[in-house]
Amino acid sequence: MKSIPPLNIYIKSVVYIATYAKQLLVYKKEAINMNEMVILVDETDKEIGTEEKMKTHKEGKLHRAFSIFIFNSKGEMLLQKRAKSKYHSGGLWSNTCCSHPRPGEDVEQAAHRRLIEEMGFDCDLHESFDFVYRANLDHDLTEYEFDHVFIGKYDGEIKLNPEEAEDFKWVSMDAIKENVKKHPEKYTVWFKCALIEVLNFLSL
After folding, report:
1. Are residues 21 and 84 in the same domain?
2. Is a pLDDT exceeding 60 seen at residue 151?
3. Active-site residue, selected from the candidate residues 97, 98, 143, 193
4. N or C: which end of the chain has fewer CB within 10 A?
C-alpha cells in the first residue's frame, strides 16, 4: 500500500499553485498593458497619431497623459507607492494617480477611470493646468508627456488595487517638500517634476 504524503505537503502545494496562478494573472495584465495604445501629440497637445505604449516609452515620443493630486480637508496630499511589478518605477512613491487616456477617450474621463482602478475611489476633479516634461526612466525608457494635472479633495475610504499600488499615505506639503529634497531617489521622476508645478499653482 502506498503511503499518503503528509497533509502539510498538500497545503504547501496548494499555496504554491495559488501563488503561481496569481503571478500569472499579474504577468498577463502587464502584457495587456504593454499593448495599450497612447495618444501622440505635438507641444500644443494636438493629436498627431497613436502608438503602442511600450514603444512610445522606448522611443521617447511625446504623448498625452494626466496626473492627479488629491488633498484631504487637512491639506495633506495623498501619495501612492507604485507596485513593484509595474513596468517602470516600481516601488517608488508618487502622486495619487497618473496614466494615459486611451485613443478616443476624454482626458477627464480617463482620470476618473484610473483613479477608481488604482485607488478604489472617485471624487470631483478639476483640471488645473498642463505642462510638458521629459525624463529618463529605468529599463532604458523615456517619459515625454504633455501632462494634464487634475486636483481634487477627498476624505473617504481608500481601497488600493495591489496590482497598481502597494501602499498609500497622507502627507503634509511641508513634509513632502522636505522628504523629496532629502530622499529624491524614493520618488518617481514625473512626481518631482509635477510637484514643482503644483506648488507654483497653489501659491497663486
Report:
1. no
2. yes
3. 98
4. N
Report DSSP letters for 135-193, one per residue: EE-STT-EEEEEEEEEEEE--S-----TTTEEEEEEE-HHHHHHHHHH-GGGB-HHHHH
- For the question of residue 123 being annotated catalytic, the response is no
Out of 118, 143, 145, 164, which one is annotated catalytic?
A: 145
Give the structural domain span for 14: 1-34
Q: What percent of the chain clears pLDDT 70, i.e. is strictly above it?
A: 83
- Among 5-14, 40-49, 64-73, 92-101, the range scoring the smallest mean pLDDT is 5-14
What is the domain count for the chain?
2
140 and 183: one domain?
Answer: yes
Task: Tell me the average pLDDT across 10-14.
Answer: 47
Q: What sign for the dihedral angle of Cα 31, 165, 121, 100?
A: negative
Helix H or strand E encompassing 18: helix 7-34
Model confidence over 59-86: pLDDT tens digits? 999 999 999 999 999 999 999 999 998 8
Query: Does 145 qualify as catalytic in the annotation?
Result: yes
